[in-house]
Amino acid sequence: MGATFRAPLGNYISPNMYLFVYGTLRKTFSPHAPSAHHRFLADAIFCGKASIKGHLYSLGNYPAFVLDENSPTLVKGEIYQINERTLTILDEYEEIDSQNPNSEYQRRKLDIVTDHDQALSVWVYLMNQQPDGKELIESGDWCCEF
Questions:
Q1: Can you list the positions of beta strands (E) in 1-146?
Q2: Which residues make beta-bridge pairs with 136?
Q3: Pick from 107, 113, 118, 7: which is nearest to 52 by CA?
Q4: What's the CA gap between 18 and 75, in Å, rounded?
Q5: Rounded to an integer, what is the distance from CA 70 to the centroid of its chain?
Q6: Nearest CA to 2 among 83, 127, 117?
Q7: The pTM is what?
Q8: Alpha-carbon distance 106 to 127, whole Å?
């Protein structure tokens, strides 16, 4: 059973600034070792869990998400409330380059429903290339791969 969704209030966070993470940024990815979550989301506010229709691929040490609204597979992840500074830092980490249409990832805003039926708009990093030859993670859960 997932955590109850909670949307904290306060001036730390811009309104509607939420992030869906599905790979190395997840808190549950590596609870006993330093991880990208600890480096980039330590001050973010955990809001709950969610799943989005699509496909998850292994790129070796990290996954990539391809959105597919017709997919029976749900990509599992966590939602965090973040600020602009964190989003900018994550764009650098994910190597988002708005001037380069061939970057590995793109950041998009999606309307989703959390595991507790809360409608929410979230930022998500999606694979910006064809997943040709990449290993499909059939479970849709990167954390289950370890």
A1: 18-21, 45-58, 63-67, 74-81, 105-113, 119-127, 135-136
A2: 57
A3: 113
A4: 17
A5: 19
A6: 117
A7: 0.84
A8: 6
* Of 17, 130, 108, 125, nearest in space to 62 by CA: 125
Residue 137: what residue type?
Answer: I
Query: What is the CATH architecture of 18-131?
Result: Roll (3.10)
* DSSP H helix total and E strand total for the chain: 2, 7
Per DSSP, helices labelled H in 13-138 are 36-40, 84-93
DSSP 144: G
* pLDDT tier, 140 (very low <50, low <70, confident <90, very high otherwise): very high
> Quick one: CA torsion of 44, 50, 55, 56, rounded to 10 degrees?
40
pLDDT (0 to 100) of residue 35: 75
Query: Which residue ranges make up each domain of the chain?
Result: 18-131
Closest CA to 44 of 3, 6, 86, 76: 86
Query: Which of 105, 106, 90, 2 is CA-nearest to residue 51?
Result: 2
142, 144, 146: which is closest to 62 by C-alpha? 142
